[in-house]
Design goal:
about 120 residues, alpha/beta, Hypothetical Protein Ychn, Chain: A, 5-stranded parallel beta sheet, about 25% helix, DsrE family protein
Amino acid sequence: MSEPSGLLVIIRHAPYATNLLREGLDTALVAAAFGQSVDLLFLGQGAMALLDEQGEGAPGQKATRPTLDMLEMYDIEGLWTSQETLQVLGLKPSCLMGNVRIVDAQGLPDFIATYSQVLNF
């Protein structure tokens, strides 16, 4: 088995419920800007940010979709969610942005273990 490497940012909060999703995205962008390999895992309500038809937040809140769309410019290409999250939220993979990959819930611990650093938001 290879040595864990890279940063995994886990986002568990809905796009406009708190600032935690935005803070998680900002952390990922800063880490990537400094050359760190970064992936994002959206679990629970956090997966709502991955909806293809993302709406805007309340007045004064920035939309998260433009930030998600520019992740590739920072070489952040690993956007993940779990099959269990989709089932709980009643979502189909076809409702998500096109570049989202799905990990099986049973494989989640092994998936997370491949990263040397994990941050939760």
